[in-house]
């Protein structure tokens, strides 16, 4: 088996196309493992991993923990809300205290963009970025591309539209990098106020008409509005946003072709996507969640092999 070109997973921006293919091939193996009656392998019995979460999470935190346990790693979980961070302890002090308990790898979610990069330069451990503010969410983009590959056979040449709050979305940025690295065509669609200025400089095209964007694409990745990152109002009302940028079953059924619907979660049912779309045959939302475990097993396994 090959090895990754990086020691940490800080963002898709730092990966090569060959890294993504290696992660996918390794995930194929682990997906087979987690579908066996005994879902565990002894690969990382000598590795200890800390999951350090400074921001809320359901999918990512549970998926990393499960991936680590399936690989037989020792796991400790840290949540900032119940920690001495509340007493003023700094990020580096917090992580160095965790590392002094002989931890090999830190999986971190943090509200500040670049927090993982900062940590990787200041502590001795392999760092995995589980989402840093509005910057990157690399394992989400990897599991998204892996799910497209599983559903459509390949990512190269596919038309993918990312719809919604592109401005505040780490999922959007990581997906743009990952999809382009694999040769997909990427469009972004949303209100002008939620599209970054000069977004075309990332090599994507812009469409503000949702129907046109959906008729162009093979896959639509629907994002939620990142209300926790909005300091001002970016659109008049949620109802108006839904009318212009929400996908409902009538719209989906009226398109020229059958498209694949994705969503990184958490879903705001009835805002960016209606329940009958989220739960339809065209939706692969729960496949994304399932694939997240295999992808995270692959990432941790490949990074751990660089520690030993
Ligand atoms: N997709 C995602 O990152 O979900 P969580 O915030 O629940 O981890």
Low-confidence stretches: none
Q: Mind telling me the CATH superfamily name of the largest domain?
A: Aspartate/ornithine carbamoyltransferase
Beta content: 5-15%
The SSE order reads HEHEHEHEHEHEEHEHHEHH
What is the number of strand segments? 9
Assigned CATH class of the largest domain = Alpha Beta
Q: Biggest sheet, in brief?
A: 5 strands, parallel
Terminal CA distance reads 15 Å
Mean pLDDT equals 95
- The shape is globular
The CATH architecture of the largest domain comes to 3-Layer(aba) Sandwich
Based on helices, strands and strand pairing, what is the structural class? alpha/beta
User: What count of helical segments does DSSP give?
Assistant: 11
- Ligands bound here? phosphoric acid mono(formamide)ester
Helix content: 25-40%
What is the domain tally?
Answer: 2
CATH topology of the largest domain: Rossmann fold
**Rounded to an integer, what's the Rg over CA atoms?**
19 Å
Strand order of the largest sheet: 7-6-5-8-9
Protein name: Aspartate carbamoyltransferase
InterPro entries: Asp/Orn_carbamoyltranf_P-bd, Asp/Orn_carbamoylTrfase, Asp/Orn_carbamoylTrfase_sf, Asp_carbamoyltransf, Asp_carbamoyltransf_Asp/Orn-bd
Keywords: Pyrimidine biosynthesis, Transferase
Binding site for L-aspartate: 87, 170, 224
Structure description:
This protein has 308 residues and is α/β, with parallel strands linked by helices. It is 39% helix and 15% strand. It has 11 helices and 9 strands. A 5-stranded parallel beta sheet has the order 7-6-5-8-9. Strands 2-1-3-4 form a 4-stranded parallel beta sheet, sandwiched between helices. It starts with 16 loop residues before the first helix and ends with a helix. The model has no long low-confidence stretch (mean pLDDT 95). The structure holds phosphoric acid mono(formamide)ester. The site of phosphoric acid mono(formamide)ester (CP) has 10 residues, from helix 2. It is an enzyme of class 2 (transferase).
């Amino acid at each position: 088996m090959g090895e990754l070109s990086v020691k940490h997973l800080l963002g898709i921006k730092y990966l090569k196309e060959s890294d993504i293919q290696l992660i996918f091939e390794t995930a194929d193996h682990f997906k087979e493992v987690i579908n066996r009656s005994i879902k565990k392998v002894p690969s990382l019995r000598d590795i200890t991993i800390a999951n350090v979460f400074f921001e809320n999470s359901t999918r990512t935190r549970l998926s990393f923990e499960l991936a680590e346990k399936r690989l037989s790693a020792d796991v400790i979980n840290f949540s900032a809300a119940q920690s001495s961070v509340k007493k003023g302890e700094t990020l580096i002090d917090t992580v160095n205290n965790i590392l002094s308990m002989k931890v090999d790898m830190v999986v971190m979610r943090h509200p500040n963009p670049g927090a993982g990069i900062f940590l990787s330069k200041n502590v001795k451990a392999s760092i995995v970025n589980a989402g840093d503010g509005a910057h990157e969410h690399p394992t989400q983009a990897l599991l998204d591309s892996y799910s497209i590959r599983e559903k459509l056979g390949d990512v190269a040449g596919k038309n993918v539209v990312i719809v919604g709050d592109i401005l505040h979305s780490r999922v959007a940025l990581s997906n743009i990098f990952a999809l382009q690295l694999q040769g997909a065509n990427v469009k972004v669609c949303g209100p002008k106020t939620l599209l970054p200025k000069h977004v075309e400089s990332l090599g994507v095209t812009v469409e503000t008409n949702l129907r046109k964007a959906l008729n162009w694409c093979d896959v639509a990745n629907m994002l939620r509005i990142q209300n926790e990152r909005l300091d001002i109002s970016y659109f008049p009302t949620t109802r108006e946003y839904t009318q212009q940028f929400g996908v409902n079953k009538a719209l989906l059924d009226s398109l020229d072709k059958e498209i694949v619907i994705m969503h990184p979660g958490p879903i705001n049912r009835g805002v960016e996507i209606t329940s009958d779309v989220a739960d339809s045959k065209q939706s692969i939302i729960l496949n994304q969640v399932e694939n997240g475990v295999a992808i995270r097993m692959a990432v941790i396994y490949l990074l751990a092999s660089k520690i030993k």
